[in-house]
Amino acid sequence: MHTGKWSFRGCTCCGDVSAAAMTRRSFLAGSAAVASAAAVASPFAPARAQAPAKAHVIDVHHHLSPPSHLEALKKASLGTPPTFAWSVQKSLDDMDKAGVAKAITSVTTPAVSFLGPDDAYRVARESNDYAKKLTSDHAGRFGMFVMPPLPHVDLALKEIAYGLDTLKADGVCLMTSYNDKYLGAPEFAPVMEELNRRKAVVYTHPGAGPCCRNLVPDIPDQIIEFGTDTTRTIANIVFSGNAHKFPDINWIFSHAGGTMPFLSERLTLLPTISPKLKQNFNPESVLAQLKRFNYDTAQASHPMALSSLMKLVDISRVVFGTDYPFRNSVDHVKGVRAFFNEADAMAIERDNAVRLMPHLKA
After folding, report:
1. Residues 131-152: pLDDT tens digits?
2. How far apart are the C-alpha atoms of 153 and 281, rounded to whole Å?
3. How is the beta sheet containing 171-175 ordered, strand by strand?
4. How far apart (Å, rounded) are the C-alpha atoms in residues 277 and 7?
5. Which of 72, 83, 279, 353 lies 20 to 30 A from 11 at CA?
6. Domains in the chain, ordered, with CATH?
7. How far apart are CA 81 and CA 26, in angstroms?
8. 59 with 320: CB under 8 angstroms?
9. What is the pLDDT of residues 15-31, one digit of tens each?
């Protein structure tokens, strides 16, 4: 049993800033409240989709807990109860209840960003090998997004090559930020160049930036800051020029884009008030980039989030995610099917993921 200090700065927490621990009871109560909100039926749905007849769903936002990563988290007094309680069988049981045919796994926040170069590389390699073994031991049920040991760029490039070429990973998992650097930062340009060259699928997961941890008493960072960190990295990718320079990266942003859909007008109008940005951007070009990205439904399978997202993007840009083990798959299938008609629900649950990763069609 894990006996260290629990940290609730994020899905597994973010590195080097201490925080008052949330109790397990309050964590579970908060999760239940969010789950209840997700179950609200949408008044905007053209027709409620029926429950699927057989397992077909592809979950692109499904976490696992490799032993090496758990050990590193324990030593750093990081982690959350769901992370430490995870097991392969629990994942499979949750998937089976909801008709999830395949889950593409990823390690959650803070990945290995809290470790020095040598340990980060070792833990990333061992964790990626573990994820690959999961795909072999349970053929057809699991895929994987390889975890590179960022912010250590040279080592990250080496692990991306290993993950995509040797392990045949479905894509790459990046955190939205590493310490105080977002994904449009110049330091990460070599990684972006390589991902663009490979036309890689890049799934992102948020944390909380060093600026903004533990700001409001009794409200853990994942409640507010995670959505904001996703918005920050989207804005940084766009306004750094990376979205234009690296158009072949297939981005997936978690949680329906965080707060970005609500703030999209502010982002599109920014070039009109910024002399620096006005040289290279206009509202139309910014909006075009936001519409080109992909967004998952994890923790966002409810009408409030989906209504905002669907005012921004086409249905083809939405993929299914659950955030398991922090939420369950049944809630997300119910939420998607309460909001969308049958054709759109099927597109989100499977077809759009297959468009991004054609090898999943089988």
Report:
1. 999 999 999 999 999 999 999 9
2. 28
3. 57-63, 100-106, 142-146, 171-175, 201-205, 250-253, 294-296, 318-319
4. 39
5. 353
6. 24-361 (3.20.20.140)
7. 12
8. yes
9. 333 333 333 334 334 44
